Amino acid sequence: QVQLVESGGGLVQPGGSLRLSCAASGFRFSYYGMNWVRQAPGKGLEWVSGINSGGSNTSYADSVKDRFTISRDNDNHMLYLQMNSLKPNDTAVYYCESPLSRGQGTQVIVSS
Asked: What is the pLDDT of residue 98?
């Protein structure tokens, strides 16, 4: 059974940092590119960042470029999103996504 479980969200002040994690199981994690997507309150899903299967190529939405860093650990079936210089409009539920499934999400709130 494909499973993606996100963690690491929370409440943070503007300018702060968070590291999101996603534990993957039930599929050959190292075979697939992975993405982080987010959904802000009252809005649709927004793609945030992607990484190829080997971890050598990454891409970012313009809104998070130079602030967020995606990475993966294929040995441990983990996906990460390091988020720095957080802004209030980064507030959203963040989801880990594979071509097969999407997790339940972790809430990030950026507020003073």
From this structure: 96
CA distances from 37 to 10, 18, 44, 75, 112 (A): 16, 15, 10, 23, 24
One-character DSSP codes across the chain: --EEEEE--EEE-TT--EEEEEEEESS-GGGS-EEEEEE-TTS-EEEEEEE-TTSS-EEE-TTTTTTEEEEEEGGGTEEEEEE-S--GGG-EEEEEE-SS-B---EEEEE--
Average pLDDT, the chain: 97
pLDDT number for residue 80 = 98
Mean pLDDT of 12-34: 97
Say which residues have a Cβ less than 8 Å from residue 42's Cβ, sequence separation at least 6. none
